[in-house]
Amino acid sequence: MTATAAPELDRTVDDVARRAQEAFALLSQAAPGLRADALRRAAAALGDHADELVAVAQAETGLAEARLRGELKRTQVQLRLFAHVVADGAYLDVRLDEADPDFVLGPRPDLRRALWPVGPVLNFAASNFPFAFSVAGGDTAAALAAGCPVIVKAHPGHPRLSERTAQIVAAALVEAGLPESTLQLVTGQDAGVALVEHPAVRVAAFTGSQRVGQLLAARAAARPDPIPFFGELGSVNPVLVTEQALRERAGELLAGYVASVTGSAGQLCTKPGFLLVPEGTKYDDVVAAAAQVPEHRLLNPSIAAGYERRVAEVLSVDGVRAVHRGGFRRDAEGQAWVTPTFVAVPLDLLRSAGAALLDEVFGPFSVIVEYPAGTDLADVVAELFPGNLTLTLHLGAEEAAAERGGLVTRLARHAGRILLGGWPTGVAVTPAMQHGGPWPATTTDGTSVGTAAIGRFLRGVTFQDAPQELLPPALRDDNPWGVPRAVSARGESLGW
Fold first, then answer.
1. Who's near 409: CB < 8 A, 6+ residues apart?
2. Is 232 part of the annotated catalytic residue set?
3. Catalytic one among 269, 313, 398, 403?
């Protein structure tokens, strides 16, 4: 707790944290099948209230109904995906070493290891995905699947939606047999900071700005007992296009680029903020034509102010050329409606301007960078774009056939997902997805999408020479949960 926190806040935060601890004592012992059923019921409950939730989300975020319905479906799929992950218990990674007096390195004790939930999780909801990265989003789904109660710090951009979603999901979890306070909601910056520092909270997950994420990560690290802070802080997602690729399909590539930048008004963490093309590329007409899209409301006044400021900063840099200048309209409440802006710069200017051009612009804005012949694109990425969620490479057909992974391998050092063609917006909710990347994309290079996301909320525990009655169910000889187990048999090492 912070020394300056008000007594009322102290009591509120302590109560939430205490309830989470009480829930953890029960939830961590719940069979995987019970948690899987609860996640499925939560997904079904969201579907039952879809019309109500989408209407609230539209009013609070300005996002289109079709986008929100698709996102709500994604949220349901995430919950069901993690139900599938935990149902058979394989995620526990159970390993049993039988006692072995003849082990090759000397007598081996009976050793039994499994992954176990870390404890209460604090999840800071995002603004740009009011369903999929919010109250019942991927971080919440993964933590609940792992057996961790979740405290969600609601985003101020959609407060009514957050409250209603929490009510619906929390009720479904309890009805399925999970303990009260398995899912709780708090509001306000002070409560979020206090909970990062609260000893009951064992992990924090965050999706938001680099500035806020760094502040919270510092608080998590400065605790007497530091905790992991999994923060997604932003990414500019460069797209690299070769001359041969442009010769083969320039129109298709440029149209796809504009569509990726403008979708959801550019308010996506995987939006391509930079397109690198060879010097002499003719792109103005195609980009300007594709950018003729209807205006779209930005999520909230804070994002609108940040977008207006960053666009003005970029346009004020000497040598920046406007390819298509979009509009910006604000109402009396500070909400803004925008159309996309695209600018172009030579590579040398990007290098010399530094942060003025390289810092993320959150919204429908992107920079086209012209690089000279002979440029090593991997070197450019290493120098200017060292950590991103995604990197996209468009090669010509002959280049792709000749490429033996050297360039791709070098690019993989700087992003969590490498696309060979296509566009980075649209993150598939599948087991193999990686949604993370080197700093500054994330504070800890894990993933917040895909089944591996559950690993952030688990830790390994080994029991040595433990009596059966003291072992957790997954490690007992009778295996009451029926989980898969890898067994190292007595005498096995003699054949190594």
1. none
2. yes
3. 269
